[in-house]
Amino acid sequence: MLTVVLGQLISNTATVLIMVPIATVLAADLHVSVLPLMMALTVAGAASFLTPVATAANTIIMEPDGYRFGDYWKLGLPLLLFLTVAVLWVPLLWPFAP
Question: Which residue spans traverse the membrane (predicted)?
Fold first, then answer.
């Protein structure tokens, strides 16, 4: 959840890179595989649909296409369904067992 929130405020790539060491230590402390946590971080980083700040592509098209900051919320909120589906699929495809 922290990755999704931070990904709206700073670059989604930077957010994932900040969270990788935290997820790695968390996996080691919990004695689980790091793969599902890394995939969850990747998906959460990709779920940067709510602001133009999150990705360079969103920022680049904002001015030429005449988008306002609030337009990203209108289109991005339904796309967060993608995040819900991913939360269900990641543990199935990458189990937590080491």
Answer: 37-60, 72-94
